[in-house]
Amino acid sequence: MIKLGAKDLRTTKGDPQIINKLPKNPIYIIVDNVLDTYNVGAIFRLADATACRKVFICGQTETPPHTRIKKASINTTEWVKWEYCETTIEAIKKLRKDVKGIQIVSVELDKKAVPYDKFEYKFPIALIVGHESEGVAKDVIDASDAVVDLPMFGVNKSLNVMVSLGIVLYQVIENNFTKNN
């Protein structure tokens, strides 16, 4: 397996032959109108760290190449497959058509949400994260199979979108690998 450090990544272009041979988990990330380009870059780093199959960038979210995305991602945008969809609903429809039995889960504070560590995640899965202030759009939540949230014990009512995604991603991986091993 190829392992590149930050210095190496900043100077490399993703080689399609290598990218297609890298083992991937049946995990997809859908980015629903996330506006902070540093969050988008960090999401690419998470996608790489967890060997996600693909990132869908939707709506008003900036796409690579973008200097701040490149900087925050340390160029993992060159190594992680991604696709732009005009709407998040379009991305969900595409995944439901192309990936048999996919579970679509929004990460959002919502009355329908269950605690992230009590939910049974199944592969293949798509995790949706949303706009920093408005969250995942209501029509997207309605199109999801489930909604999970993270408990907030302090005075603040939410976590950073990338941090929330990271916590849930590793929970998904832990659930699927401990269950199958």
Describe the structure.
The protein is an alpha/beta fold. It has a single domain, classed as SPOUT methyltransferase, trefoil knot domain (Alpha/beta knot, 3-Layer(aba) Sandwich), CATH 3.40.1280.10. The chain has helices at 6-10, 16-21, 37-49, 67-73, 88-98, 138-143, 161-180; strands at 25-32, 52-58, 82-85, 103-107, 114-115, 125-130, 146-149. Helix 4 links the parallel strand 2 and strand 3 (82-85). The radius of gyration is 16 Å and the shape is globular. The two termini are 21 Å apart. 38% of the residues are buried.
Describe the structure concisely.
By secondary structure, the chain is of the alpha/beta class. Helices cover 38% and strands 20% of the residues. The longest helix has 20 residues, at 161-180.
What is the name of the CATH class? Alpha Beta
Major β-sheet strand ordering? 3-2-1-6-4-7-5
Task: Return the structural class.
Answer: alpha/beta
Largest sheet: 7 strands, parallel
Radius of gyration: 16 Å
Low-confidence stretches: none
Distance from N terminus to C terminus (CA atoms, Å) equals 21 Å
The general outline is: globular
The helix/strand series, from N terminus to C terminus, equals HHEHEHEHEEEHEH
Assigned CATH architecture = 3-Layer(aba) Sandwich
- What fraction of the residues are assigned to beta strands by DSSP? 15-25%
CATH superfamily: SPOUT methyltransferase, trefoil knot domain
Average pLDDT score: 91
Q: What is the fold named in CATH at topology level?
A: Alpha/beta knot
